[in-house]
Structures are given as structure tokens and as C-alpha cells.
Design goal:
With 430 residues, the chain is mainly beta. The chain has five helices and 28 strands. Helix content is 9%, strand content 40%.
């Protein structure tokens, strides 16, 4: 047994620094009486960089993001939402004698916020051109709008009470933001020159092109809203004076799954830790690399020495774990889960074989402040030549409906204590 042990030490000494797995290394995963020997190495060379994320599609999502968030790590992120509206009922019976009392844009809170919302200054503008349900809209796309803010003058600043019920007179409603709009919009919506506008959803959406909704806040928060909640929409409150009898009525223009809608993300890195990052280039990540939602940032990891193990054809990968420790900061929210992808020969993103069989992991461990991926099948496939040794890309989840990010420890973050670094731990069975 002693000779066998020294045989393995000699085999690996010119290649990688190896060790037997201890209980803290995950050694408890390996049976002690199966007749196999196990060796473990975590000294693979890793090259990490931060790069611009591909633009993502953010259309047809029920959740809207509005607001601005600023921190020292990621700089400033501004979120704008765009949406169409539909008639709640075709051809509403509204006499020419009606008088608009008020117009309110309401958006139901989703209860999720990023940052600490206080008072925000909102801007609502009408789109110049119609949106289309069958079109594709991405996170970096800006739609042209008319310059006027439709919010009634003096009502632009609104407190954000995303957990408190909304009280209207004697009615208590679900938590929602309510923005008073210009009364002229009520006449535009309910008294078009061509009455046929109110007789067809498609014709109406060509007539009323939709809105952009943003918030010029003090960089305090991005708030998430549920646009297809029944409480969301434009409500016109009016008095109908037809026949000398006055009725107080209302009509709602709604947002449904049949409406085109999407979120735009704008990222500004000036004055942050990423101020030296230039889109289209890669920022070295020896000490830190970054991941950010909303077509923000992704990380690229290279393992240039992994194929050196092919010189020894009698070892089998028993387990391979990619471990990514992170910095925790109350100014931004980490992901519940990260994802790994590689670029196939066809130019399309591919999931690792470990994800295909649902063993990859990648969930955040708040105790150890790290993400751990089981990529055993992937590493073995690379060693056998079934898959090429290509870069792995680390991506965040919920990218189109959240403002999240991580600042990860790079592979050379702590030379003295490598357990604090991003590393690949491979255990072999012989």
C-alpha cells in the first residue's frame, strides 16, 4: 500500500500539487472499502476575466423594473419599462358630454425592491411609434418618446410604500403606485376623432402607442412592479352629463399578456470599481471578477492546464467542483444561483452535461459565501476529448427582472490562503 501511495505522488509531482481528500475537502463522499485510491488537486491554473454580457430579451415579462440604483462597485443602473395597453371592453358607451375628473396610472408592487426606496421623481412619456406583440425587445433597446412628462405638474415626486395597502376614500386596495396623469390624456383615450379606435384592440394600440415609465430617483432604489396584475393600468375617472343626469364613472385601460412590454437597463460604470472597464474588452480578474444582470456583465473562466492530465490515462474523475467565493455587500443583492455555459461549435450557448442531469448545483451558500458547481461530467468529457477545452462563462439568473450582481474572488485573490480563491478541485479515482 505504501509503494502504491508513493507511485501516485511521483506520477503527479511534475504536473499538479495533489493530496488525499480529507473530511473537510469532501472526503466523506468516497467509500473507504471499495478498493479504490483517491487523489485530489486544486492547483489548476485559472484565467478569469470580466466582459460585457450579451444583450438579452426582456419582452413578455410580467414584472417591470423602474428606478435608479447606485453603488461603489457597479456604478449606476437605471431601469425603464415600456408597455402597451388594451381596452378593458370594446366600444365603451361614453357620451360626448363627458368631463374628465382625473387620470391615474397605477402599477401593483411586486414587493421586491433593490436598494432602499424613498421618494422618487417619476417620468411617464408617450411612445412615438407603436409597440408590437410579435416583435422582440432587448435590455439595451431604447424606444423614442415624446418629450412631455404626462404626470400632472407637482405630482412627479411620489413616496414608495411597496408594502403598505393603498387607501382610496373608504376602500383599501392592494399596495400600488398611483401616478396622476394629465387630464388631456383622458380625452385623448376616450374621445378619439375616429370612433373606430375604440372598437378594435389592434386599432387602439396603433392609436395609443404605449408608455415609457422611468424614475429620476436619487440613486436610491429600483422597484419591481407587476404590470399584468388587475390593479395595474390607466384609469380615467369622468362624469357623464348626458340627459341632464350626472354620473360619476370610470374606465380602465389594462395591461395583459397580449400587450407588448419590456424592461430596458442602462449601466454607467464611471466612478465605480469598474470605471476602467471598457465594453468590448475583457477586464482581468486575477483578484476579482464581476457578474451583473440586465445585459450587464459576465465572467469568463479558462482552464489552460486541464488537458495535461491526459498524459495519465488510468485516472477517472470522481468529482470536480468549481468553487467561487464572493464579497458580500449590503449595497447590492447576490444571486440565488449562478449558471455555467460554453459556446458550441455552432455558435450557440450550451449547458454543461452536469446541468442536463440536474447535478450541477450553483446555488449560493450564505454560510461559506460561495457558489459551488459539480462539473465532474464536463471535466471528464474534456479529458476524453468528447468536449473541447473551451472557456466557461458564468452568468446570473433572473437577468431581465432583477438588479443583482456579485463581486467574486479571483483565482489569485489570496496567495497565502487559496481556499478564499476561485478554484477547481478535482478528485481522481484509480
Amino acid at each position: 500500500m505504501r509503494l502504491f501511495f508513493w507511485f501516485w505522488i511521483v506520477v503527479f509531482i511534475g504536473l499538479e500539487s495533489c493530496k488525499k481528500p480529507s473530511p473537510t475537502d469532501g472526503g466523506e463522499l468516497f467509500p473507504g472499502s471499495d478498493g479504490l485510491s483517491y487523489l485530489q488537486t486544486d492547483t489548476f491554473n485559472i484565467i478569469a476575466t470580466t466582459m460585457l454580457e450579451d444583450s438579452i430579451y426582456t419582452d413578455d415579462l410580467s414584472l417591470a423594473l423602474v428606478g435608479t440604483l447606485d453603488n461603489d462597485v457597479f456604478g449606476t443602473t437605471q431601469c425603464i419599462t415600456y408597455t402597451q395597453f388594451r381596452l378593458s371592453a370594446l366600444d365603451p358607451e361614453i357620451s360626448s358630454a363627458f368631463v374628465v375628473d382625473s387620470v391615474v396610472l397605477s402599477m401593483a408592487y411586486n414587493t421586491t425592491v433593490y436598494g432602499k426606496p424613498k421618494e422618487q421623481r417619476f417620468v411617464v412619456r408617450r411612445l412615438i411609434s407603436p409597440m408590437y406583440k410579435d416583435s422582440i425587445y432587448s435590455a439595451r433597446q431604447t424606444l423614442p418618446t415624446f418629450p412631455d412628462n404626462l404626470i400632472m405638474e407637482g405630482n412627479e415626486e411620489q413616496a414608495v410604500h411597496y408594502l403598505a395597502p393603498t387607501v382610496l376614500g373608504e376602500d383599501t386596495l392592494s399596495p400600488q403606485l398611483r401616478l396622476p396623469l394629465d387630464k388631456e390624456l383622458g380625452y385623448l383615450l376616450l374621445q378619439p376623432q375616429d370612433p373606430a379606435v375604440l372598437q378594435s384592440q389592434d386599432v387602439f394600440q396603433q392609436y395609443f402607442t404605449g408608455l415609457s415609465i422611468s424614475s429620476n430617483a436619487w440613486n436610491d432604489a429600483v422597484v419591481r412592479y407587476d404590470l399584468i396584475d388587475p390593479a395595474s393600468g390607466i384609469t380615467v375617472y369622468y362624469r357623464d352629463q348626458n340627459g341632464g343626469v350626472e354620473d360619476t364613472l370610470s374606465y380602465q385601460f389594462v395591461v395583459t399578456t397580449d400587450c407588448a412590454r419590456y424592461n430596458e437597463f442602462r449601466h454607467f460604470y464611471s466612478g465605480s470599481e469598474l470605471s476602467d472597464f471598457t465594453p468590448g474588452t475583457e477586464k482581468q480578474g486575477e483578484e476579482h471578477f464581476f457578474i451583473q444582470t440586465g445585459a450587464g456583465l459576465k465572467a469568463k473562466l479558462l482552464f489552460p492546464t486541464i488537458l495535461n492530465l491526459n498524459a495519465y490515462q488510468d485516472q477517472v474523475v470522481n468529482r470536480a467542483e468549481l468553487i467561487i467565493p464572493i464579497e458580500v455587500n449590503s449595497e447590492y443583492t447576490e444571486y440565488d444561483q449562478l449558471y455555467l455555459r460554453y459556446l458550441g461549435d455552432d455558435g450557440k450557448w450550451k449547458a454543461l452535461p452536469d446541468e442536463n442531469v440536474q447535478v450541477i448545483g450553483g446555488n449560493y451558500n450564505s454560510t461559506y459565501r460561495q457558489y459551488t458547481f459539480n462539473i465532474s461530467r464536463y471535466i471528464q468529457s474534456v479529458l476524453t476529448g468528447e468536449l473541447a477545452n473551451k472557456p466557461l462563462y458564468v452568468l446570473g439568473g433572473t437577468s431581465g427582472v432583477s438588479v443583482k450582481g456579485i463581486k467574486a474572488h479571483g483565482p489569485k485573490y489570496n496567495i497565502v490562503n487559496p481556499s478564499e480563491n476561485t478554484r477547481l478541485v478535482v478528485t481522481f479515482a484509480h
